[in-house]
């Protein structure tokens, strides 16, 4: 077997390949720079993104599939897939209209191309449409190792350049560092270094495959460990119930799917790419079987978690992607379960056949998910708007920031329609959301609104008949003890032009402690317990010409004329001590805070 691999490696050697792929990467990097790299402050146009996608995908596939004995077929395959990817990019339109989860479309497109490559390589080597599992499996994992190792080569070259830059800086030469800071050089360097590293590694493909098989053997040893853990987890579920799973983490689906992926990888490490490479040790084989049989139950539990979240909060692109991943996990789990049920002792051979069909199906599905046909934006928008209009969720609880920035163009169009709603609260909130410049601003605005509502619900006003202006309500909401703590008290001065905010958590009732209990007291009781008064100073507000403002913050403490007199007086040493009449707040006859004018 080793002699066959050595002969195959010698046949695949092509001394000029590293230079060719390095040059190809350099050209691809330069073209990408001129298409999308010159202006990082604006999103690329649809045509720019389409052309860049064609260049990157075609060049990348050429790098992985180019062989001296089949240059033309590799070029045709790469150009066709580059054209398919470019059409998908054009179909998706400008990135400015993408939703928050659009990155998964890019991943799906890359996954489809990555799965198609080993199928082409196997058919090329066989001289026809024959897909031997061993060859396809070897090509797939060799491509993965080549991809990771090539990026490692890029990192090593970059560190070398940084070291040389620091060396030459010692003698006053900075041109290497200046080059590293240029966008055109960065993109050109990435392409050239990746292509060169890929070419060099392919000249030693036998070593790469040996590393891949060693890694698979090492991972196979872990199969019994994870298998036992997953079996114990599923055995404990009937006793703990699913409620404990929902309470333990906010995202149980991600944890469960990660376990399914780990089970899939470790199980295939034991299964190998043919009967000769199956692990012979019984613990490893039993571990692989445990992993194969637990994938479907774990996927079903993940499906339950995803369904409950969608039923409670509605559809979003993120949840639809999660549902897609769960469906893929269920397909793999079902295929592995059926393989064991129908083949028993020969279940590993049946799994290898299933893996080919699953990979082909995943390639088609990934390509579909990369296109707008997977209309997650529109589905999510319709569902969320329907929940709002039906009253399942109120306007003040609705996630307007998500509709404005996470659902892409359909979300923005829905906001425009809601801006003309006959419901005043919906119309007002939609128009406000349309005015937000980015998601962060929207989240901050919604959080401030919710904090204000919570603060006002727990606010005590003195005198009791005093009305709190809307501008002052917003300022009260910015104080976390008022919105998230035990509530606050707002005291108005006699003229109503001043107000002072007291945190109720700073004046708690005495709590009797049991003998031996920790005698440390919380900071919230700072005023009455004598702890450092951080956060317990009353907050002063003043009503000025522009409305209510905090009197202890901002540049409005001094006018421009006062600032000028302060600077001039300080320069000439006009500094003195005066006795002044001041005011101070009292609670229960006791002074609180610092005196003020």
Q: Topology of this protein?
A:
Elements: H1 2-12, H2 17-37, H3 46-65, H4 71-92, H5 103-126, H6 133-169, H7 175-180, H8 183-202, H9 205-220, H10 223-248, H11 252-271, H12 282-313, H13 317-343, H14 347-369, H15 376-390, H16 400-405, H17 408-418, H18 424-435, H19 439-457, E1 460-462, H20 470-477, H21 480-483, E2 488-492, E3 498-503, H22 526-529, E4 539-544, E5 547-550, H23 560-571, E6 583-587, E7 590-596
Parallel strand pairs: 1-2
Antiparallel strand pairs: 2-3, 3-4, 4-5, 6-7
What report would you give on this structure?
The structure is a single chain. The protein is an alpha+beta fold. 66% of the residues lie in helices and 6% in strands. The protein has helices at 2-12, 17-37, 46-65, 71-92, 103-126, 133-169, 175-180, 183-202, 205-220, 223-248, 252-271, 282-313, 317-343, 347-369, 376-390, 400-405, 408-418, 424-435, 439-457, 470-477, 480-483, 526-529, 560-571; strands spanning 460-462, 488-492, 498-503, 539-544, 547-550, 583-587, 590-596. The strands form 2 sheets. It has a 5-stranded mixed beta sheet, with helices on one face. Strand 4 (539-544) and strand 5 (547-550) form a beta hairpin. Helix 6 (133-169) packs across helix 8 (183-202) and helix 10 (223-248) packs antiparallel against helix 11 (252-271). The longest helix is centred in the first third of the chain and has 37 residues, at 133-169. It is globular, with a radius of gyration of 33 Å. 32% of the residues are buried.
């Amino acid at each position: 077997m080793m002699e066959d691999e050595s002969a195959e490696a010698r046949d695949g050697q092509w001394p000029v390949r590293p230079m060719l792929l390095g040059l190809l990467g350099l050209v691809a990097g330069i073209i990408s720079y001129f298409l999308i790299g010159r202006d990082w402050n604006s999103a690329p146009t649809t045509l720019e993104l389409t052309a860049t996608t064609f260049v990157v995908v075609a060049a990348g596939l050429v790098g992985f599939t180019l062989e001296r004995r089949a240059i033309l077929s590799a070029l045709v395959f790469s150009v066709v897939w580059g054209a398919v990817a470019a059409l998908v990019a054009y179909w998706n339109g400008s990135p400015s209209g993408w939703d928050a989860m659009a990155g998964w479309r890019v991943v799906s497109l890359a996954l489809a191309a990555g799965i198609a490559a080993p199928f082409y390589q196997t058919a090329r080597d066989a001289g026809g449409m024959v897909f031997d599992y061993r060859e396809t499996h070897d090509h797939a994992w060799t491509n993965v190792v080549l991809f990771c190792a090539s990026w490692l080569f890029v990192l090593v070259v970059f560190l070398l350049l940084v070291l040389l830059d620091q060396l030459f800086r010692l003698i006053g030469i900075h041109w290497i560092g200046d080059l590293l800071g240029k966008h055109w050089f960065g993109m050109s360097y990435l392409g050239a270094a990746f292509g060169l590293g890929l070419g060099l590694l392919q000249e030693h493909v036998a070593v790469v495959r040996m590393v891949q098989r060693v890694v698979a053997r090492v991972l196979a040893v872990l199969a019994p460990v994870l298998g036992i853990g997953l079996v114990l987890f599923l055995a404990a579920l009937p006793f703990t119930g699913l409620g404990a799973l929902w309470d333990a983490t906010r995202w149980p689906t991600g944890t469960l799917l990660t376990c399914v992926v780990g089970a899939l990888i470790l199980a295939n490490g034991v299964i190998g790419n043919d009967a000769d490479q199956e692990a012979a040790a019984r613990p490893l084989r039993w571990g692989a079987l445990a992993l194969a049989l637990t994938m479907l139950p774990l996927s079903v539990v993940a499906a339950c978690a995803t369904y409950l979240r969608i039923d409670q909060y509605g559809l979003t692109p993120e949840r639809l992607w999660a549902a897609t991943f769960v469906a893929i996990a269920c397909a793999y789990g079902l295929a592995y379960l059926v393989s064991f049920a129908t083949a028993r002792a020969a279940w590993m051979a049946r799994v290898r056949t299933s893996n080919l069909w699953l990979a082909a199906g995943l390639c088609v599905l990934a390509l579909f998910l990369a296109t707008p046909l997977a209309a997650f934006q529109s589905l999510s928008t319709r569902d969320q708007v329907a929940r709002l209009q039906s009253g399942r969720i109120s306007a003040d609880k609705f996630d307007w920031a998500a509709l404005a920035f996470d659902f892409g163009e359909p979300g923005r169009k829905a906001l425009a329609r809601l801006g003309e709603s006959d419901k005043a609260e919906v119309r007002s909130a939609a128009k406000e959301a349309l005015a937000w410049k980015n998601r962060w601003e929207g989240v901050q605005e919604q959080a401030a609104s919710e904090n204000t509502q919570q603060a006002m619900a727990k606010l005590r006003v003195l005198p009791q008949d005093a009305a709190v202006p809307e501008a002052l309500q917003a300022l009260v909401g910015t104080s976390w003890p008022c919105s998230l703590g035990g509530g606050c008290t707002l005291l108005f001065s006699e003229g109503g032009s001043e107000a002072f905010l007291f945190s109720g958590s700073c004046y708690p009732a005495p709590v009797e402690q049991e003998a031996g209990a920790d005698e440390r007291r919380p900071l919230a009781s700072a005023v009455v317990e004598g702890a450092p008064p951080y956060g317990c100073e009353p907050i002063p507000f003043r009503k000025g010409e522009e409305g209510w403002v905090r009197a202890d913050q901002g540049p409005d403490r001094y006018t421009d004329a006062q600032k000028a007199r302060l600077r001039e007086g300080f320069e000439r040493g006009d500094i003195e001590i005066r006795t002044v009449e001041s005011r101070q707040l009292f609670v229960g006859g006791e002074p609180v805070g610092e005196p003020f004018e």
